[in-house]
Amino acid sequence: MKELHTGQLYWPTTRLNTKPYPALEEAATARIAIIGGGMSGVNCAYAFATAGLDTLLVERREISEGSTSANTGMLQYSNDTMLCDLIVQIGKANAQLFYRRCLQAVDELEQAAASLPESVGFKRRSSFYFASTEQDLPKLRKEYEALSEAGLHVEFWTSNDIVKHFPFRKPGAIVTHGDAEVNPFQFVNSLADAAVKAGARLHEHTDIVRHEPLPDGRHRLHTSSGFTIEADYIVCAVGYEPEELRGKLVKSSMNRSYSIATRTIPEPLLKQWHKQWLIWETARPYLYMRTTEDGRIIAGGLDERIEQPVHSEAIMKKRGEQLLGKIQALFPDWPLAIEYMWNATFGESQDNLPFIGEDPALPGVYYNLGYGGNGTIYSMIGARTILGMLQGEYTSHPFPFIGIRP
Ligand SMILES: Cc1cc2nc3c(=O)[nH]c(=O)nc-3n(C[C@H](O)[C@H](O)[C@H](O)COP(=O)(O)OP(=O)(O)OC[C@H]3O[C@@H](n4cnc5c(N)ncnc54)[C@H](O)[C@@H]3O)c2cc1C
């Protein structure tokens, strides 16, 4: 089992008394067995169970304890690859289709959040994507044109527009409307409870160690405790631990990203942050930041090409202070202090697109791997796409460029 994060996480402190689910302690059968109880697996369990499918989910840790709890919770349809670059990568029609599908996923996440009996911190927020340097401006303009042409609701803000709304000046920015924020820990735990109410069976502390394809086309999973699960379909929603995949089926790189949550900012000061939009930038790696319901700032960035989360207190502190310095540069009058600081593994595919779809060599085995900065959007697209595939809605993959590819 990999270590997915180190340090002190903020989100798990916002929902105490999460419901425990029993470990699997007998042989089980199901129509669909999902491996992984993070954002991707639980979105699937909820979608499948509410569609009336016999669903069983197993999680080797606890629900939402993987990278989901380290997530910043920014729900943005813009990808790590700008639309103007994605057009070059996969063609204009596919790139526009995919960006629009990502926007639709924000609506689907909103509907899922609204169906839950408790608040999970879901709020529609626009995003503010600023040019980190003057040199980035032409590219930002190009991206604005591409987003506008795709029919997305965007604005271009000049330097003068920015200073009228924020206490800082930047060369320019794109404002994208239609994004949102969520508390990923509350959302996934509440959605898991809702999936169970809809008929799904959930088992925590149940580690899948082997997958055995059966001669009749079904599948048998073996747990580390010696029990088996037989299912018609398997969904691997294993996040950044793709060991369940056949060898190196997907090509990904694992990095690590630093995050902090500040102490609460006084309400009158927070008003300087225009509409509490989600903020990110054109630099790579980028700074990403948002506010929380209790008035904190969560910021992340300083990504490093190292898989193992950091253990050194000194490095964590240094990176935390660097992130704090970046926030302070934007909001110079604020009394900022770090209250939570963590470091987490972060997976990216080579083409910055997720892996969603059926194993080309193992029919009935599906993957929902939302690798990338907007992994939550991808998790939802994965849940809906795989549900459509299971229900025979498609004759071929609706978005082949995110299918399981070498
Ligand atoms: C620092 C950071 C910030 C991020 N910020 C954002 C953001 O702002 N917006 C956004 O959309 N995305 C963001 N992401 C990405 C997002 O966190 C991920 O895309 C998402 O949480 C992945 O969910 P998941 O379910 O795929 O993975 P996980 O939450 O890791 O869930 C996978 C689960 O599978 C379980 N598992 C693995 N193998 C087995 C096995 N053999 N048997 C049983 N269980 C198994 C694991 O225990 C784990 O709980 C961020 C990620 C990081 C690290």
Question: Mind explaining what this structure looks like?
Answer:
The chain is an alpha+beta fold and 406 residues long. It has 2 domains: 5-71 and 185-250 and 351-402, FAD/NAD(P)-binding domain, CATH 3.50.50.60; 122-179 and 252-349, D-Amino Acid Oxidase, Chain A, domain 2 (2-Layer Sandwich). The chain is 28% helix and 26% strand. It has 9 helices and 20 strands. The strands form 3 sheets. It has a 9-stranded mixed β-sheet, with helices on both faces. Helix 1 (39-50) runs parallel beside helix 6 (184-197), helix 1 runs parallel beside helix 9 (375-390) and helix 2 (83-90) packs across helix 3. The longest helix has 23 residues, at 92-114. It is globular and about 65 Å long. The two termini are 24 Å apart. The relative contact order is 0.20. The structure holds flavin-adenine dinucleotide. The site of flavin-adenine dinucleotide has 41 residues, from helix 1, strand 4, strand 14, strand 18 and helix 9.
Short description:
The chain contains nine helices and 20 strands. It has helices at residues 39-50, 83-90, 92-114, 137-149, 159-165, 184-197, 267-270, 313-330, 375-390; strands spanning 5-8, 28-35, 55-58, 74-75, 123-124, 127-130, 154-158, 172-176, 180-181, 201-203, 208-213, 219-223, 228-236, 252-262, 278-281, 288-291, 297-304, 338-349, 355-358, 365-369. Helix 1 (39-50) runs parallel beside helix 6 (184-197) and helix 3 crosses helix 9 (375-390).
